[in-house]
Amino acid sequence: MRKMACRNRVFVHLQRFLMSGALVASLMGCAGTAKEEPPAATDLHETIVKVPVDEGNHTREIVATTYMPDGHGPFPLIVLSHGSPPDPRDRWKVGRYRELPQIRTFVQLGFAVIVPIRRGYGATGGIDEEDAGSCQHPDYTAAGEQAARDVLAAVKYAQTLPAVDGSRVVLVGQSAGGFASLAAASHAPQGLVGVVNFSGGRGGNPSKHPGMPCDPQQMAATIAHFATTTHVPVLWHYVQNDKYFAPEVVATWFAAFQAAGGRGQMIVEPPFGTNGHGMFAVKDAIPIWLPHFEQFVTPLVSR
Question: Could you tell me the keywords of this UniProt record (predicted)?
Answer without folding.
Answer: Hydrolase, Signal
